[in-house]
Amino acid sequence: MSYRVTLIRGDGIGPEITESVVEVFAAGDIPIEWEEAHAGLACLEKFGTPLPEATLESIRRNRVALKGPTTTPIGTGHRSINVAIRKAFDLFANVRPARSLPGVPTRYNDVDLILVRENIEDTYAGVEHWQTPDIAQSLRLISRPGSLAVIQYAFELARRLGRRKVTCVHKANIHKATDGLFLACFREVAQQYPELETDDILIDNACMQLVVRPERFDVMILPNLFGDIVSDLCAGLVGGLGVAPGGNIGNGYAVFEAVHGSAPDIAGKGIANPTAILLSAVQMLHHMGLHHDAERVETALRYTLVSGIKTRDLGGNASTREFTKAIISNLPPRAPDAAQGATEPPYQVAMPTPRSPESEGWQTVGVDLFFHSPEPPRNLPAQVGALRLRAISNRGVPIDPHAPPERYLLNWYRARYLAEAPLSEGDLQAFLQAITPHLQWTTIQRLYQKEGQPLYSELQAE
What we know:
Blueprint (H helix, E strand, L loop, with lengths): L2 E6 L5 H14 L4 E6 L3 H7 L5 H10 L1 E4 L13 H8 L4 E7 L12 E7 L9 E5 L2 E4 L5 H17 L4 E6 L7 H13 L6 E6 H10 L6 E4 L1 H14 L7 E5 L4 E5 L16 H13 L3 H16 L13 H10 L32 E11 L10 E2 L2 E8 L2 E2 L13 E7 L6 H11 L4 E11 L12
Parallel strand pairs: 1-2, 1-3, 3-12, 5-10, 8-9, 8-10
Antiparallel strand pairs: 4-5, 4-11, 6-7, 11-12, 13-17, 13-18, 14-15, 15-16, 15-17
């Protein structure tokens, strides 16, 4: 029995390194049937988009894809192909193993950790806009359902692989609402896995600890932006992006890819290193339950590296073709009783139902008003209906608009208005109508408070 997988060869060196996987799988009699689809610069020229709908349809049919590196067009308005695929299939978990390889010299010999990164939210949601000609704003979106989904997956992965520890990496001491929510979700999920050791660490300390003693970590779970940065750091511990696999996991869909770039400068020269895409294919086989075949390919790759046959970027002189042939020659025979099909169903997570503020006892108690002003605002009304002006800030730092400025000010301010009692929709509409003649506002943000909690401080860190 064979299983169909979408194959996207990509740009630059993509076709060369994906061909290496195709040849190794064919030589090893691995039960994968490839369905070719396309994405990248050639598609942009041919179809007017780097990611045609036919490619998305192929992934929908097959539910699993292997993708070579693609080039994101610069200055054309087209978003990253990788990001577009992740969002199209709600691939909420990016899984990046970092494991030392024999024959690949690094500063460390025994790295073996797995980084799980939230893959859709955070600043990568792409909600950006201009506030003034001098201020661009990007919203950092961290949701409870999104956080619970990826954290649950990280714990399930740790349990399935027999790992000992899961570490949450965050910045909740500064980002008290966003990272605070992510950390709270981590602690909630951790209670369901008493057999696993858990801890948490600040992102800056985590980066230092990774380069001092990476053995401290086993499975790491991070929000999107931190995960993007730290995953490349982890790749550096084991030899760089050329040996770093990656998988994007969602409910019933998975896309595996080499995480390095398309390297157009060496495309067609026959010197590209296919290790990362081969390890991504190994990760894919494990995901599909084809563990015996996954181990055969990885064993052959490791034998090849330790024998000294390596591409130039790893210190050898083998061409892509020579390296591939060596791996094929080292493939262990397929066991007669090897499982012929996937033994594990596609991963599924029960997504939490979004909650309304009212159902959770949240009340509107004020507003943050962001506005453009060439000078410090000295004429804002101190009281508008039930709302009283509590603070004015510039880039998050409180200011006194009536005092001579002691610091450099931008022409973008925030005014915090708070009420002593919960506000109605009518109160908010009346406030906005009354305040509009006094300033050129850009954004208004409703401030919620859960019943029984202390009132907002006059000014919290942004």
